[in-house]
Request: fold
Amino acid sequence: MTRRTNHASGPGRTLAAGARGAALSAAAARAVYAGLTRRPPRGRDTWDRTNHRGDQLTLLEGPAAAIAAAAAAAVTPGLPGRTRTALAVAGVGSAAFGCYDDLAGNGDRRGFRGHLGALAHGEVTSGAVKIVGIGATGVTAGALAGGPLVDVALNSALAAGGANLLNLFDLRPGRAIKVALIGSVLLAAGSRGRGWPAVAAPVGAAVALLPEDLGERAMLGDAGANALGGMLGAAAGVTLSRPARIVLLAGITGLTAASEVVSFTKVIARTPPLNWLDMLGRRPVAAPAAPAETSPVPPVPAGTVSAGTVPAQPDGGGAEPQPPVVIPEQASADRT
Reply:
């Protein structure tokens, strides 16, 4: 059985409804972001992080995107009430648990294997709390969307899986948002345009905050990436046919499993088209400093000590030369 949401009839009306929802979400995202950065909850230090350039950026982009997208989804025209509620719950719930991990996590454990492995040894990490919480959020969103039990199960997994997968891409400026936008276009195309109202809210918030992300002034963090991914997963659940949802869920599962053993960043860097898209709009990579030129040192006759040199210590003392510290361009303490 194929289940699809009964959106506003006609491609023109559907597209118009999606455009209004996206515009509303974009305006809300800019307003919420401005308000949060003007008066950060619990102080600016709670949200500030340092990136690989040594610049300060804020995690408040994530809460702003989540709040705006969830609020816009609740009032986007062309969507049934159950769909609006499911989208809003997917966004708010995923953002809440992602925000908890942003603020309480220490980065010692990574991925499902790290967090679940710690849990097996009696250690409850913030990531484990997030995994369980986002799973529960996905089930709630799937149940709210309704339908036969098999569809509820599929849609629950899509919402939870989408939230986790998009967060895996939030390792470089703008990357997660680009993935979200590409996924939204593919989702809408796969539903023959019927999905535009469902993806409008996350798309609008993502586009509005993309300049902050690319400019390395802010980042989505777990709160924003989980929220946008969860909403897109929920949108897929209410717009795609059952076979399409099964294929999509298989793809999400495969990529999530691959992330445990493969670095997405390395794959992207080694694939020219993906690397070009990944760098599009980003600040130029800082060129490594050229080594300082040194004047040739004339040979010193045996048995003499030239000016400015220190004789070797008989006990082997003296400071040993230190290797240069190399900070790779790709290393980013704030995007983990």
Summary: Residues 11-38 form the longest helix (28 residues). Strands lie at 48-50, 56-58. The radius of gyration is 25 Å. The mean pLDDT is 83.
